[in-house]
Amino acid sequence: MITILIFLSSGLFLGWSLGANDAANVWGTAVGTRMIKFKSAALICSVFVILGAVISGAGASHTLGKLGAINELAGAFTVALSAALSVFWMTKAALPVSTSQAVVGAIIGWNLFSQSAIDMKALTKVMGTWVFSPVLSAIVAAILYFAVLALLKVWKIHLIRLDGITRVALLAAGAFGSYSLGANNIANVMGVFVESASELFTSFNIGSVFTLTGVQQLFFLGGAAIAVGVYTYSKRVMMTVGSGIYHLSPITAFVVVLASSIVLFLFASKGLKEFLVSNNLPSFPLVPVSSSQSIVGAVIGVGLAKGGRNLNLKVLGRISLGWVATPLIAAVVAFVALFIVQNVFGQIVF
């Protein structure tokens, strides 16, 4: 068990990095606009991230497994560590980098090192979401923005009451977003370990109504690591997302969080996909979408809906640079790290 935990440590580190960086994508707007206190956001985020990871985390991890079925614990350890280091360096620069891109880049590095064939269909599907998800978030956010404006004109709520309703709405949207983040992005944290480590955990029953499988235990550990990252290091990035790109009012902050959460949920919900397929309707692929791209897309959507005059293009440029550099850096780091682990430490990595 000690050996397993040592190899899982890089995944837990990656979970910490994701919590430090990607929690800002859900709560940054609410915290940045001073509507929700950081401690409240961190507590709710931690609870719902773990629930989302354990209950609904299996779907997106399946697609990631197609991209690279890492069959040795030492290989999975190195890939997760490489992705985590890439995310950590970006987080130190206060950039909302994409953990999904870091993990995919590191898996590609493993594929190249092990000379394994890259599933181009899976890679194309994942990379397609990097373009589609922020665009979809922007569209959803713009629609929600105009819908909320129309409702406010009809209801004519007093400002004091509106403030209270907005805070409750932000909490509800944040909880939904945290659940979606856990369900979608746990694949980034523990997905590379599913092939090699899930069978090492024995399933056990909680009461007589719920069984926690080996994969769900892996996802629980990853969710707990994300929660630690939220508490210890996410505040700086929250302020960048919440106020650096575009000045958001509390109501537009709610719109942004809700739009991003909906997009994350669409790409994570196995039940929704099965429902759509069973009714011969088009469905979304179960892919670990970048929550960073989703929230930034939503912020841009609201900004454009309001005329686009106050968008901070300089910050957007820095963020976009991080998105392009992250998978490339992670792939190179993974390749070099795998060489060192195999040839210096004598571990089997594939």
Automatic annotation (TrEMBL):
Membrane topology note: Multi-pass membrane protein
Which cellular compartments is it found in?
Membrane
**Keyword annotations:** Membrane, Transmembrane, Transmembrane helix, Transport
The UniProt record lists the keyword Transport? yes
Could you mention a single GO BP entry for this protein? phosphate ion transmembrane transport
**Transmembrane annotation, as ranges:** 38-61, 73-91, 130-152, 164-186, 206-233, 245-267, 287-307, 319-341
Record-linked Pfam families: PHO4
Q: Which GO terms describe its molecular function?
A: phosphate transmembrane transporter activity
GO cellular component, as recorded: membrane
Q: What is this protein called?
A: PiT family inorganic phosphate transporter
Q: What is its main location?
A: membrane
Q: Where is the signal peptide?
A: none
